[in-house]
Write a structure and sequence with these properties.
Number of strands: 0
Oligomer: single chain
Helix content: 55-70%
Number of helices: 4
Structural class: mainly alpha
Strand content: under 5%
Radius of gyration: 16 Å
Shape: globular
Distance between the termini: 18 Å
Largest sheet: none
């Protein structure tokens, strides 16, 4: 948030980026966890923010190879990630007050819905993305 202006459109960019990165990470984790993409043991979900350029290229190459062999399975995995995030967003709307709405409040409400849906790891991913963008501050 410290790198954008006070213009409404600019202020929305970090939140939108956090949602997109959450979608991508949910897809990535599901594809690897389901065995559709084989990554080296030293490339971990828990350190995606720490990957170097070579590791990022390796992940891209492995996903491309897997897509050639398992396109339907990977498309379904992306749809699952999309549906999970979309459901959490939609469910959060009923909990939000437009008079007190902030990006931090909206993000926390979505994370709460992930928890309620039995996907707390997705809420943790979202909160990490929101924290990295200075939208929320966790103690």
């Amino acid at each position: 948030m410290s790198t954008v202006s006070d213009a409404v459109h600019d202020l929305s960019k970090p939140f939108t980026g956090a949602m997109f990165d959450t979608l991508v990470e949910l897809y990535h984790r599901n594809a690897v966890d389901r065995g559709f993409v084989d990554l080296p043991l030293d490339v971990s979900h828990d350190r995606l923010f720490e990957l170097d350029h070579h590791e990022i290229e390796l992940i891209g190459d492995r996903f491309a190879e897997a897509f050639d062999a398992r396109s339907f399975l990977l498309k379904s995995t992306l749809e699952d990630a999309r549906d999970l995030l979309g459901s959490a967003i939609a469910r959060s709307w009923a909990t939000l007050d437009p008079n007190t709405l902030t990006y931090a409040v909206a993000g926390a409400a979505i994370a709460d819905q992930f928890d309620a849906m039995g996907a707390p790891e997705a809420g943790d991913i979202l909160m990490e993305n929101l924290e990295w963008r200075e939208i929320v501050v966790r103690a």
